[in-house]
Design goal:
With 320 residues, this protein is of the alpha+beta class. Helix content is 47%, strand content 18%. It contains 11 helices and 10 strands. It has helices at 6-13, 104-115, 133-146, 153-170, 196-208, 216-221, 227-238, 242-260, 265-271, 276-287, 291-319; strands spanning 18-20, 28-34, 39-42, 47-53, 58-64, 67-73, 78-81, 87-92, 96-103, 127-130. It has a 6-stranded antiparallel beta sheet, sandwiched between helices. The protein has a 4-stranded antiparallel beta sheet with strand order 3-8-5-6, with no helix packed on it. α2 (104-115) packs across α4, α8 packs across α10 (276-287) and α8 (242-260) packs across α11 (291-319). The chain starts with 5 loop residues before the first helix and ends with a helix.
Length: 320
């Protein structure tokens, strides 16, 4: 059987309204189509395709050989098209969907590293219009992120790592694990986290690279772990994803600058690798106020402290 790349299929399908490569290694691609012909011929593909249905409810029919599958699907439900399988599709209703393509090699590696399963036997299970709230949230977050003027690469790659793990765990032919296996060599900490020297290397790199588009591969490289092991171990050590931890560091640096300098918020945001809107959003999530309010509040507290100190000094002098 001749297999066709998903990219080639998409290029011949229509002009997408969105196209992005969330993974720099070519392991994942994201495309979105809207308002195209509801009838499609899907060739046998090299990659796996996860489709999320957008725009409202619709009726989707899949034709495969002598079998016909008809399903009324809700917005946000997913359809999985495993690699090496072909089908014909007909959709009645709003034509709006996004495809995430994931290579078989990448998912097989996740099956091996995260679940200790034979990568040669791994495959995704096909489904049409299935409800998967967590996968839906991941894909919607990815769509929202790539539409930003300055999408963050580390965040996109982190979403792909979590998505791949979820697909292998709950939408494949492997048995659902109680918990992913790990070894003392791959995850040195007793609780499955990073060793202290590994964590320090990662934090040092993050601090050094607050400005710029830090890649997940760069963080992985300083630990000597595989990508999926690193991601899991980092979350175990910090209770945060790498992207969330990097954002915390940026907010900390910005907070210090707001209190100790007279620089504008725009300048401070740029100095920590964010635009003013991103900084404001991150600040509100972590401090409950905007950067400007934070600066005024901190300066007000500092002024009150100085006044209290001066009053105490005067009182002491008067007693002398």
């Amino acid at each position: 059987m001749d297999l066709v790349s998903a990219r080639h299929w998409h290029e011949n399908l229509a002009v997408p309204v969105l196209h992005a490569a969330p993974s720099i290694d070519g392991e994942a691609r994201l495309v979105r189509f809207r308002g195209i012909d509801g009838r499609m011929n899907q060739p046998a593909l090299l990659e796996n395709v996860v489709s999320i249905h957008l725009g409202g409810p619709k009726r989707v029919t899949r034709f495969r050989g002598r079998h016909t599958h008809v399903r009324d699907v809700e917005e946000g439900s997913i359809t999985i098209m495993p690699a090496a399988e072909s089908a014909r599709w007909s959709t009645v209703g709003p034509i709006d969907f996004a495809h995430i393509t994931l290579t078989q090699d990448y998912l097989s590696q996740v099956a091996l590293e995260d679940f200790d399963r034979d990568p040669g036997l791994f495959r995704l299970k096909d489904c049409v219009g299935a409800g998967s709230p967590f996968v839906q949230k991941l894909v919607e977050a990815l769509l929202q992120e790539v539409a930003q003027p300055r999408p963050g690469r580390l965040y996109r790659e982190s979403l792909i790592v979590v998505l791949a793990h979820q697909l292998v765990a709950y939408h494949s032919n492997i048995e659902r694990p109680v918990s992913p296996p790990h070894t003392a060599v791959e995850q040195p900490d007793v609780k499955g986290g990073l060793a202290p020297w590994q964590l320090q290397r990662v934090i040092d790199l993050m601090r050094h690279r607050l400005v710029g588009d830090l890649m997940l591969a760069e963080l992985v490289a300083v630990t000597g772990l595989s990508r999926s092991h690193f991601f899991r171990a980092f979350r175990c050590s910090t209770r945060r994803t790498p992207y969330a931890f990097l954002t915390d560091l940026r907010v900390q640096q910005a907070a210090a600058a707001l209190c100790t300098t007279g620089r504008t918020i725009t300048d401070i945001a740029a100095a920590v690798g964010l635009d003013p809107a991103q900084l404001a959003h991150a600040f509100r999530r972590r401090h409950g106020v905007s950067p400007g309010s934070y600066r005024r509040l901190r300066r007000g507290l500092a002024g009150s402290s100085d006044m209290a100190g001066n009053a105490a000094s005067r009182e002491k002098a008067e007693k002398l």
